[in-house]
Structures are given as C-alpha cells and as structure tokens.
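Reopening this ticket.

The earlier resolution said the output was attached, but the attachment link was broken on my side. Pasting everything inline this time so it's all in one place.
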Amino acid sequence: MTLEYSFKATTPPVQTAQPAAAATSTAASAALPATGWLRGTLWFIAVVQFVLGAGFTLAPAQMAQSLGLPPVPGWAHWMFAMMGARFLAVGAGMLLAARDPWRHRAWLGAMIGIQAIDGLATWAYLWAGTVTLAQVSTASFLPVVFIALLWRGWPRPPLGGQAGAGA
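Inline output:
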C-alpha cells in the first residue's frame, strides 16, 4: 500500500452543516449576481473593443481624424489596421470569457494587463504633451474602470469544484 493510497483511504469525506440542496441553492444565489455583473462588464468591454476594432480596421484614417490627431503617413494606417484586428480578437475573447468567466479567467487577466499598459501609455503621452485630453478621450479613465471592474468581479471557484461544467 502506497502513502498516497493510505492517505486517500483514511481521509474522511468533508461534511457540511446544511443539506446539499440548501448549500447548492445558497451558493448559487450568492454567486449569480456577481457572475451576472461580471458578465455584463465583459460584454461592455467587448462592445468597446469591437467598435474600436471595426473603426481602426475598416477606416483607420477616419478614426485618427475623429480623435483629432494630425494626418499621418499612409504606413501608419497599416499599423492602425493591425491594431484594429487585435481589438477585434480581444473583444471576441471577452465574449468567450462572458460565457464562463471561471473557465476563461486567463482572458480576464490578459485584459487587466492590456488596460494597465494602455493606461500607463496614455498618461505618459498626456504628461509629455504629445496628445491632449480631448484626443485620448475615454482612454484617460476607461483603463482604470476596466481594471477595477475586472478585479472586483474576478471569478471565484464555485462550491463543489464544478467550474465550467455548464459551458
């Protein structure tokens, strides 16, 4: 008999203070509002990413103009289109995460990282005077909002270890 087998054979099952049905319904009712709230946040982030992605992919010059940025060489529009493709991909990732936040929490972590870099870059360029507050618009505060919402709504493991079973 191995140590692992011996351990498993002698470990008693964990008992709960309430019946299984009551524990499940209590856990579900406590988790649903947070999960619904997080899913709504992920959908909102996805919409923002899709709008930016579509704009920068399909009409890069017009997007730059709408932000009040000066005209740039044509090659910059190529960079904007590639950036737009990444916005679209991240938007798709947010929709995937909205289906099952626990299972796809790597997407949430990636978005927190993206927003941290976006925020720091935006503030650095604002501080340097390269862009104005009017030009960066919502990029001056949305990274903080997105990070706070994702951090606050970070999915916790469900009771019973059945994460992702319904997806």
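Reporter confirms the inline version is readable. Residues 34-154 form one domain. The radius of gyration is 22 Å.
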